[in-house]
């Protein structure tokens, strides 16, 4: 299996080199040269597997001989050993048409743990086996940072720097990152929004001499291994819902801001998983909803919402979808991305827009709608939604058809976003690991939105002996 760039200017790479590259050297995103397809008989065989065995079977199609099977199993088992549920990502039935897949049973109580615990172990494996220096650099709208730091803190041969938007993540998200005092961790709190942080990261990865000099590695979903690890739970969700669906079509509804999580579902669908509808849920930062409904991909005015992890206007994984939408024509992708840079928008219409609407449905929930869903599901089902999952429930209610079943992905534990829960006049008990955070000192450096200052911080950090 080889991997290529969506922009076509990178020689095909193996899996490990693809992971180490992160953002493609031509500014594109790495994708498999050919998406492997899974037969109906294989799907049937996979449907009874445990989460880890399913993970190993899917990864085997993409890794092939680069990682020995025993090594891959050890990495997977170690990655999920500290999850609080034996199934890793259990599926709960709420009513006859709704199931919720709980993706928040990892160490930082968010779906990012499912991929990033593996990425942390994998980077450690590469560092030890190949003598690689690993300097992870990433931006977060809240959950990625905590999960990435948890995955690599204290690991030999690895340093990690995470940028997060100052005062624009939830308090628990902030504490999960900034109460870590390991010497291989640097938290930069940037006066700006997530898109500002993400642009700095992309610009630094696009500076190839800087990237090479400092051994920069990506933890964000620009890295294909993040996408692949998330694809596993789409298969698992589908299989765990089949019996209750009793032959009815199965939809999957996905809270998504950066297009990474929903693209993982799109990849699973391309592999042959018969998902009926992929439903995108966003908030008032609704660039993805506008794209699906109107064909206009154009960043709008940034809004702070009750679901801050989706407060994103520039969805970095959109380019991967565009690549497949354009029938894997890298030249056309490059032209569209150049148009986005020069004109600030991409507009599709006619048959092209119809194709997008066949691929996805989308709904951007308002702040009021989000809180209404939290109150309603607590009252009707005694189930407490976090605000991102609540946006997903709003989209499920709008787009799940008669005689269809939907799995909505619960992307975080509600304790991570108590600011929204309080507004619903609901008091929740915090899990012990979250409650303990409020008594711990914080370690972060607050900086202006300034790429040169980020570079200065990084160069100082990389010279420290750990």
TrEMBL record:
It comes from the Bacteria. Pathway: Amino-acid biosynthesis; L-threonine biosynthesis; L-threonine from L-aspartate: step 5/5. CDD domains: Thr-synth_2. Its EC number is 4.2.3.1. It catalyses: O-phospho-L-homoserine + H2O = L-threonine + phosphate. Residues 100-318 form the Tryptophan synthase beta chain-like PALP domain. Pfam families: PALP, THR4_C, Thr_synth_N. It is an enzyme of class 4 (lyase). Residues 2-80 form the Threonine synthase N-terminal domain. Keywords: Amino-acid biosynthesis, Lyase, Pyridoxal phosphate, Threonine biosynthesis. Its cofactor is pyridoxal 5'-phosphate. One of its GO terms (molecular function) is threonine synthase activity. Catalyzes the gamma-elimination of phosphate from L-phosphohomoserine and the beta-addition of water to produce L-threonine. Belongs to the threonine synthase family. NCBIfam families: thrC (TIGR00260). This is Threonine synthase. The lineage of its organism: Bacteria, Bacillati, Bacillota, Bacilli, Bacillales. The gene is thrC.
């Amino acid at each position: 299996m080889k991997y290529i760039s969506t922009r076509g200017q990178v020689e095909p790479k193996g899996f490990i080199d693809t992971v180490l590259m992160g953002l493609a050297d031509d500014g594109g995103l790495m994708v498999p040269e050919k998406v492997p397809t899974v037969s109906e008989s294989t799907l049937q065989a996979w449907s009874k597997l445990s989460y880890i065995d399913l993970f190993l079977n899917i990864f085997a199609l993409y890794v092939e001989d680069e990682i020995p099977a025993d090594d891959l199993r050890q990495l997977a088992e170690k990655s999920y050993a500290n999850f609080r549920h034996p199934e890793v990502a259990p599926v709960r039935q709420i009513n006859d048409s709704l199931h919720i897949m709980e993706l928040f049973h990892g160490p930082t109580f968010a779906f990012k743990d499912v991929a990033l615990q593996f990425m942390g172990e994998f980077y450690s494996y590469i560092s030890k086996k190949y003598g690689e220096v690993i300097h992870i650099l990433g931006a977060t709208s809240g959950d990625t940072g905590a999960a990435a730091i948890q995955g690599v803190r204290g690991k030999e041969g690895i340093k990690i720097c995470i940028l997060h938007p100052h005062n624009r993540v939830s308090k628990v998200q902030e504490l999960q990152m900034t109460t870590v005092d390991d010497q291989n961790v640097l938290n930069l709190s940037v006066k700006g929004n997530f898109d500002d942080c993400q642009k700095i990261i992309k610009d630094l990865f696009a500076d190839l001499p800087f990237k090479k000099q400092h051994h920069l590695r990506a933890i964000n979903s620009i890295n294909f291994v993040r996408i692949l690890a998330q694809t596993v739970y789409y298969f698992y969700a589908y299989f765990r819902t089949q019996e209750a669906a009793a032959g009815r079509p199965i939809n999957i509804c996905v809270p998504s801001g950066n297009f990474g999580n929903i693209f993982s579902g799109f990849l699973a669908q391309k592999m042959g998983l018969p998902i009926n509808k992929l439903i995108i849920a966003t908030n008032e930062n609704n660039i993805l909803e506008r794209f699906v409904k109107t064909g206009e991909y154009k960043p709008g005015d940034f809004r702070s919402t009750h679901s801050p992890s989706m407060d994103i206007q520039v969805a970095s994984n959109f380019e991967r979808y565009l690549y497949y939408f354009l029938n894997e024509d890298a030249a056309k992708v490059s032209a569209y991305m150049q148009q986005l840079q020069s004109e600030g928008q991409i507009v599709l219409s006619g048959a092209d827009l119809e194709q997008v609407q066949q691929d996805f449905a989308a709904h951007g929930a308002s702040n009021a709608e989000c809180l209404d869903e939290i109150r309603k599901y607590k009252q009707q089902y005694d189930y407490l939604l976090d605000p991102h999952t609540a946006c997903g429930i709003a989209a499920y209610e709008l787009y799940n058809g008669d005689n269809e079943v939907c799995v909505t992905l619960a992307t975080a534990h509600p304790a991570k976003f108590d600011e929204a829960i309080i507004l619903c006049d609901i008091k929740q008990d915090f899990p012990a690991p979250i409650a303990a955070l409020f008594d711990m000192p914080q370690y972060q450096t607050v900086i202006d939105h300034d790429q040169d200052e980020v570079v200065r911080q990084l160069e100082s950090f990389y010279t420290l002996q750990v």
